[in-house]
Amino acid sequence: MTRSLRARFAIVALATALIAVGGVGAAVQGLFERHVEREMLAELDADLRFLARSLMLEDGAATLTVQPLPDPRFQEPLSGLYWQVRNDTTGAILRSPSLAGSSFPLDPDALRPGELHRHIVHGPEGMKMIVLERRIEDAVGTSASYRVAVAVDRKVLEAANRAFVLDLLPVLASIAGGLLAAFALQGAIALWPIERARRALRDLRGGRRERLGRALPSELQGLAADFDGLLEAQRQSALLARDRAADLAHGLRTPLALLGARARELRDRGEAEAAAAIEEVTSGIDARITRELARAHIRGPGPRSGPVPLAPAAGRIAGALARMASGGAITWRQDIPSELLAPVDEGDLMELLGALLENAAKWARSDVLVAAWAEEAAVVLLIEDDGPGIPLQDRRAALMRGVRLDPGRSGTGLGLAIADDIVRAYGGDLRLEEGATGGLRVRIMLPIAQGALQRTPTRDASRPA
Fold first, then answer.
1. How many Cβ atoms from other residues are within 10 Å of residue 187's Cβ?
2. CB count in 10 Å sphere of residue 350
3. Which of 312, 343, 360, 320 has its CA nearest to residue 456?
4. What is the CATH architecture of 305-465?
């Protein structure tokens, strides 16, 4: 059985329509067949009465003559309508011209005068016939009696039924189409709450609403309330986990500071090897604490998420770095449309830009480019510097925590790793590439929720590829 509710509705609707139309068609056809058969039997009875009244005795019991019946089919050979008169005493038979010299058998049942019998017999050429017969005695006083019978070929009835069914089929098809249309409308109405729930969940995930609330129909309000309760519990649990992580990290910073001071004392006493060992351990722990704190504060998609104007945030961070001694000699270029929105939380965006621009400022010789645009269903962000770049074989390691490709430079080696964590939290992708001048180009793609492209311009062909 398919898992799709639409497919299930369609299967049930189709089966119901076929069963209903088939049942209606069979009932109507049965009623029509019985009606036609009753009308045909009534006509046969009238013909039988006319035939009985038209019998005349000539020369005593020697000869029977019959007046022609009104229906012309009695005169046409094998027309489907027949009559026959049999003398029970002599066995002589008079028949209609339509029998073409043949006769049809009659059951040897006992007939009282005037009594009407109905039979199904096989006549000429094996045709199946409906027969009505009566027994008539000689009114002159002789002992002769006659079995008077009229018959009709069942093919006449079947032909009428076929013609009726052919005329009925378009009507049944129209009824089936109407039923399917009604079922389709009913299915659409029944599935609309599911579509509303899906949109509500998408808005919930995209940060455009905080809870399901009354997005579901009244029959599912209990489910919505339970879901909102679970969501709130998860939010509280995540907040508590972040607070505990922050408390733990800050609690470890004091022992690390004491170990750092102890390492400096050892170095001052000439025990450089022991001091280096302690500094290496404390440096690794501090780097781990720094990254875990950053990860704990990543909000990710949620009720408080963006979209956030990208150009002002990049301008503020670049301006702050330009005022520092290390960034004053760098030309900061920005190519971001003022109306472009980043589909992330404002705090996460500032953390992301801060990590990437600080890394670019540390390695750039004289130029840093920040560009962004909308491309299909994502916002693309490029940060490119004219520094030495990162060799292809080292780019994966550069995204790992605490990896410093140049130990001679200051830093923790966490900037790119933290940026990658933030991008992945939003379902995006961060890639390290070679820039136009040989430096590092960081390409970020952040997916945009459906329906959120209202103010995001499309990519210009002149932007970096």
1. 17
2. 16
3. 343
4. 2-Layer Sandwich (3.30)
